[in-house]
Amino acid sequence: MKQHTLALLTAALALAYGAPARAQSNEELLKELRALKDRVNQLEEKLKATEAKAAKSAEAQWGMTPEQVREFNRIAVKTEALEDAQEALGLKNLKITGFIDPTFIANKAQNTAGFQLLNKDAYAYDAGYFGMAVLDFQKEMDGGTRYKLTLAPDRGTGSVFNGGSIIHEASVNIPLGDLQTRLWLGQIPDWTGYEMTAPPLNKLITHNLLFDYTAPTAYTGAVADITRGKWMIKAGLANVNNSRKSAGNKTPALIYRVDYAKGEFQGFGFSGLHGKAYNYATDALDAAGGLRFADQAGKDTRVDMLELDAYFIRGDLTWQGQLSWGRQRQAAIFNEDGQLRDASWTGLSTLLAYKFIPRWEATGRLDYLRNHKNGGGLFGYSYDDSHNGIGRGNGFFWDDANPDPEAAGKGTNRYALTFGLSYLVNQNAIWKLEYRYDGASQPVFLNTKDGTFTKTNQLLGTSMVLSF
């Protein structure tokens, strides 16, 4: 405004004194200066009105005052800088979740009662995938590639089959052409049956008999992951319960799972495994303490497994069921003539749950496992096991110095009845209570108090699953 005023005054003076031929009196000059001043004032008022109109127009357009617009611009610049920094640090689309699952288990036959958390015990039905502390990292790239790393010290799949590794899952899922056709690589937890590995995804504390004794732990390999409408298909080649094949073992296994979501409330799936896996029967010792099958020790043998599961979930009601069949060559517990025999099994499991109050849910589960042939033998269990109730009963140990074909050739069928309650404390915490009754066709459970064997056992457990 000052610049415009000076310019006008300068022009006025130039007009007033620039032409000698037009000499003017002082009175005329004052009149011209007054007229010029009035014109400058008019121009100043017009400029102010234009600026006010522009401000009102901006406020009407953006719903903000000029000061608010400037503040918005500053925020936008800072946000862009934060996004750039997040991407540069690799944090874009990174999701971190986890949970902790302190658990209390009382086992009558084992004469134990106490809390379990990150315990280093071998896997068993009363020391399974509970008492965990898990940290999960998931990242998706702009092109759709997904990375997943799940850390589970002492109680993850890695601790079961890979020398105490803390890796529960380490995988990458790469799109091939489109997001519904993918290649899945790495260490992948088993997908058999209706029960999941992680406690937050299960209604009970313990797992069913089929999950514990007939299913693999994890796969290390490559899988095609295909989604077509309501169908989800996974199929590939992998090592079974093994991160690296040992010398002389070269054959991977064919693994697959197919799921179909029939409708909003129901669906079914089936899975299979056909290939070679470690045979624990070759670890059996003879009377002298040496390997009875030293010539076959360390050799994988053929495994075939088929499984069908289904579900119906609507409102407060949940039903899930599973049928399984399996066989491993030369992996039975009993070998009378010095020749390794085949282990085979069939089983079923069904679960029913109902939320009788929004936060309270009651659950019941029934399991049955038929395993009497050749002294018994399940996937990964080719020996008498008085803790888990597998084998020939009464702690029977057959060797060349104590042959008893009739007793040694008969395995044990198992069943389990489980009842549970759960309470949703809040969106991140679930409290569980469970009573489990295990039974067997022979006395296979060791009573550690007096060294006797019984056909039944009881377990009581409670846990608090806290997730974030």
TrEMBL record:
Organism encoding this protein: Roseateles subflavus
NADP found in the keyword field: no
UniProt feature coiled coil, ranges: 23-60
Entry keywords, A to Z: Coiled coil, Signal
SUPFAM superfamilies with a match to the protein in the record: Porins
Isomerase keyword on record: no
Protein name (record): DUF3138 family protein
A Pfam short name: DUF3138
Signal peptide residue numbers: 1-23
Domain of life of the source: Bacteria
